[in-house]
Specification:
The complex is a heterodimer.
Chain A (H helix, E strand, L loop, with lengths): L7 E10 L4 E8 L2 H6 L7 E6 L3 E6 L10 E6 L3 H7 L6 E8 L5 H4 L3 E7 L3 H12 L8 E7 L8 H9 L4 E6 L11 E2 L2 H8 L6 E6 L2 H13 L7 E4 L15 E2 L2 E2 H4 L2 E3 H6 L5
Parallel strand pairs in A: 7-8, 7-11, 8-9, 9-10, 11-12
Antiparallel strand pairs in A: 1-2, 1-6, 2-5, 3-4, 3-6, 12-15, 13-14
Helix pairs in contact in A: 6-7
Chain B lengths: L3 E4 H14 L1 E8 L2 E7 L24 E10 L2 E6 L7 E6 L1 H15 L5 H8 L1 E6 L26 E5 L3 E6 L2 H9 L5 E2 L3 H14 L9 H7 L5 H6 L7 H4 L7 E8 L2 E8 L19 H20 L9 H5 L6 H9 L2
Parallel strand pairs in B: 2-6, 6-7, 7-8
Antiparallel strand pairs in B: 1-9, 1-10, 2-3, 4-5, 4-12, 8-9, 11-12
The chains are: A alpha/beta, B alpha+beta.
The structure holds flavin-adenine dinucleotide, iron/sulfur cluster (SF4) (2 copies) and FE2/S2 (inorganic) cluster.
Flavin-adenine dinucleotide sits at the interface of chains A and B.
Amino acid sequence: MENIYKPYIAEIKEIVRETSDTTTFKLEFVDEEVKKSFDFKAGQFGEYSVFGVGECTFCIASSPTRKGYIECSFKKVGKVTSVLYDLNVGDKIGFRGPYGNWFPIDDMKGKNLIFVGGGIGLAPLRSLIWNCLDNRDDFKDITIIYGARSINDLVYKNELKEWKERKDINFVVTVDPGGEDKDWKGKVGFVPTVLEEVSPSKKNAVVITCGPPIMIKFVVLSLVKMGFSDEQIVTTLEMRMKCGLGKCGRCNIGNVYVCKDGPVFTYKEIKQFPAEF
Amino acid sequence: MADKLISKEDLNTLIDNLAKDIDVFAPVKKGDMYLYSKISSSKDISLNGKNTKKPLKEVFFGQSEELISFKTAKKEIEIIESEEDGKKRVIIGSRPCDAAALPILDEVFGWDYKDSFYLDKRERTTIISITCNEVEESCFCTSFGNISPSSKEGSDLLLTDIGESFYVEVVTDKGDAIIEGNSNLFKKAENISQKDKRQKEAVEKVKRRVELEGLKEKLDINFEDPIWKEISQKCLGCAACTYLCPTCHCFDIQDEMKKSTGKRVRNWDSCAFGHFTQMPGHQPRTEQFQRFRQRVIHKFKYYVDKFNKTACVGCGRCIENCPVNMDITKVIEKIVSS
Ligand SMILES: Cc1cc2nc3c(=O)[nH]c(=O)nc-3n(C[C@H](O)[C@H](O)[C@H](O)COP(=O)(O)OP(=O)(O)OC[C@H]3O[C@@H](n4cnc5c(N)ncnc54)[C@H](O)[C@@H]3O)c2cc1C
Ligand code: SF4
Ligand code: SF4
Ligand code: FES
């Protein structure tokens, strides 16, 4: 029987410092076979590890349409992320995955897509956004609303510029009040407020949102106010995880294992959970 | 697969014979407690002692278990897979409740992804349980329809002490194989009435009972009931109840490093601890009552919804070992009558 806890070894090929505490790694699997055959869907995650330090959970932040590598973006918050943060190009880490379910991209075809992201919560959305942009004709209007506490906290700055310039996306970027400087050309305001300002139509639309739990909460309230139905709202949940395999029990909430049955849920599904969020 | 008899002397011979070739685990007295341990001789075994401190799960799902090991040299990493030794194993003298906990654990380790560490050990282990000679005040196994001091759930053979001999009931092919391989030690079954009498006596010794009727229906709707705060008030969050529970299976994964070699291990963990769900800047279970509630609802509702099995076998360990005398049967009673 296969050892489900055995990671692949991946080499760090590129490092982008996103903010003062957030980094993106471009990773390639060392094993050529794995590199060729590795496949995943936008929304899935993995267990990344520093050998001798431990594992931690991040989404796969790159798009499944871009083959041969994966990317992850993470914030330095604790034991493993602090060590990961200091690694260099050429260093090797472990990766187990892909795990969990994914965004319902097939059901999204032919629809207007509204992405609402906050802070590093843009990471899983980015995977899906590029997935959709690489198949642009499959989708109708694409709106992206992204915010962070301050200009310095915005991630993927180069891509934000690119999205701004593209004619086939409505891209709105915002920072929390006080997070702007005098040259700031984007909006100033909390994500839910800006969302209500932009006021995208609920007609034939799907909203995909991810960010800090408090942001998600208020985004959902705004969406409901704007008339979106619970099924139209899709998000990805964070529950502490260890195995990612539906074994260790850590991510259990109600009848689901977030690592297996999630992390992607509609707001309708989340409403069925016991009030633990 | 007919029933058999084995004399007490022959059982010792069987154990000694088996221990020569394969790993034999049995309850062994260590200080003032009993623990399932690997034995090399029938002399070490205690079949009449108190219930073991730690449950049988430990033999399949170690308290601390290596998942991989690795060597690092400069930028290179070599992963060394943790090989199971592949040896056949026998457990002799497990309590029926502990054996009944195994099919419950099988569900979680076997659904979807297959946990090779657990399943491999399960596969190569034969379980010979024994009708309980003594029961504890805390035992309430008979509250569950399929479990009792002489139930066969999860066992391959069931022994019942009928004086000079053990009456042997064959439950599975795996159990039968033990008899086949040592047929000279087993005799044709007789004295079935004596066996029935001993089993009935054992069942009657279990005095504690809890009414489970209506519990699941309550748990389906009482998540926000103030009763959770009330019934969990004295819980310290020490996690003794979950560590010692034969069906609790939560674990943590940690790395251990010595110079350039290291290993990744899994360790028993518990939903009773706050750090269990602590995330950067976010904690869904900030208070002990929420953790206590998770333990109870997981056992008696979530597990039932997912796997159609209750994750409790009434072994009484959590009652016996809680430092503040939390009693799961009283907790259930209070919920049902709330
Ligand atoms: C599905 C999923 C996807 C995710 N995707 C991403 C992603 O793309 N990018 C990203 O950056 N993060 C992501 N996360 C979060 C990420 O998994 C964690 O930030 C990461 O595991 C932290 O690992 P660590 O070892 O560095 O932190 P740890 O050392 O484990 O600590 C994590 C945090 O918990 C706190 N903590 C730990 N133990 C205790 C304790 N005993 N008491 C109180 N507080 C404690 C620490 O203060 C710290 O803030 C995701 C999580 C999930 C579940
Ligand atoms: S053993 Fe008792 S005090 Fe400790 S966590 Fe369990 S119920 Fe709480
Ligand atoms: S919950 Fe208590 S009585 Fe039930 S199986 Fe676990 S330790 Fe035994
Ligand atoms: S992370 Fe282990 S069960 Fe979900």
